[in-house]
Amino acid sequence: MLLASCSKQESGATVGGSDVPKGIVVASTAFTEGNPVPPGKIPPEITWSSAPAGTKSIVLAVLDPDASNFPHWLIANLPPDATRVVDGGVPGQNGSGDTGYYPPEPPPGPPHHYHFKVLALDTMLTLQPKFTVEELDKAVRGHILSQGELVGTYQTKE
After folding, report:
1. Is 128 left (phi over 0), alpha (psi -120 to 50) or beta?
2. Tell me: the pLDDT tens digits for 25-71?
3. Cβ of 131: how many Cβ atoms within 10 Å?
4. Mapped to the 3 state alphabet, what secondary structure does 27-61 carry?
5. Which is nearest to 91 in space by CA: 112, 114, 61?
6. CA 77 to chain centre
7. What pLDDT is stored for residue 111 in this prediction?
């Protein structure tokens, strides 16, 4: 149950920042900005525009700020020319302690917001598999060339 997971891993890590240029356009065939993310364990298809010149790696971070930035999906070191999730990245730890995509399952109540963030970095990160959102947040500081995000929602009815 997500509620237990949210209380297990509280995080203030936001990954990215408001002072970084937002030049990457993030999109999905499964949902549009501000609309519901599809349920289920299969991640929605996420694509993004090309990264700027000088990009050495791409990061994808899916966070729920309504649950203290609970990480739903973390991937670092995607190739700089990638415009979707591809094999070869380093998987981070989601809020359940596993790697891979953790689907939205908030407790009953108001909708939660799921931020699908893509960061273009000027470096390859030295993170090990199952890195945490806090480790990622620290590692990307000062290395973000550009970023973009797509925000979806999900609500569990009572």
Report:
1. beta
2. 999 999 999 999 999 999 999 999 999 999 999 999 999 999 999 99
3. 20
4. EECCCCCCCECCCCCCCCCEEECCCCCCCCEEEEE
5. 61
6. 13
7. 97
**Nearest-CA neighbor of 103 among 147, 59, 33, 156?**
156
Per DSSP, the three-state class of 65 is helix
Instruction: Return the ∠ at Cα 105 (arms to 101 and 107), rounded to 5°.
Output: 150
From the first residue on, what is the mean pLDDT of each consecutive set of 10 residues in the chain (158 residues)?
Answer: 36 76 94 97 96 97 96 98 95 97 96 98 98 97 96 93
- Supply 14's token pair: 């936001």
Rounded CA separation 92/98 (Å) = 8
The first and second tokens of residue 28, run together, are 């999905």
**By the 8 A CB rule, do 11 and 71 touch?**
yes
Looking at the DSSP bridge assignments, the partners of residue 73 are 62
* pLDDT reported for residue 12: 62
Q: How far is CA 16 from the centre of its chain?
A: 10
CA distance 128 to 133: 12
